[in-house]
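As the work plan foresaw, the team has encoded backbone shapes as discrete tokens. One protein thus recorded appears below exactly as we store it.

:::
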Amino acid sequence: MASGMLFSDSLWIWRNPKKALAITTVHHWAVVQEAMSEGKGMIILCPHLGGFEIIPRYLANHYPATIMYRPSRQEWLNEVVEEGRAYPNMHFVPTNLNGVRQMTRALSKGEAIAILPDQVPSGGDGIWAPFFGKPAYTITLPIRLANRHNTPAVMFTAKRRALGKGWIIDAKRLDAFSEDANSAVKELNAAIEAAILAAPEQFIWSYNRYKHPTGAELPPSN
């Protein structure tokens, strides 16, 4: 149910961005303004919840945004998604070394970047950490980028209102991540959990957050 609603949200937002933005309410926008005013850029973190596709569009009306995404193995689907996601002031980069370099450059210019923190990274690019009580291979990229120059990391959600009534975007700045990577991924997962629990019925629980990617070490047994 949540997957279908999220997909419907995404399609409608792609095709009707101006209408979607008109029925979007934003809470705690001052958090974003303060983060961007520091001149170090901002790391946008948003889980697969509600109308998450509206978040970078709202941001892009105020600041340039570079968004990381994982291309599909099906070329025709990539074309559909890329066409649907296209929006002024938004730049999409793939989940590879070139994409990371482009995101680093965006931060160096004081711009915003966006990463889906609940997406399972490729083997070697994550660390196992508890996520709702089970070990999940967790992305470390946003932690490394945040700690590199003390860049603000802000967790966003876009909760769906009643059908056709739009979304409520909320922003919460996270505390600085620990320098110890194992502690930091636990902190990141705790922040994702808190964001999801604000509207758990709108999260894609069917996504296999606990899969073992090829090339990753085995999860801890205890």
About this structure: Residues 2-202 form one domain. The chain has one domain: 2-202. The radius of gyration is 17 Å. Residues 55 and 158 are 7 Å apart (CA to CA).
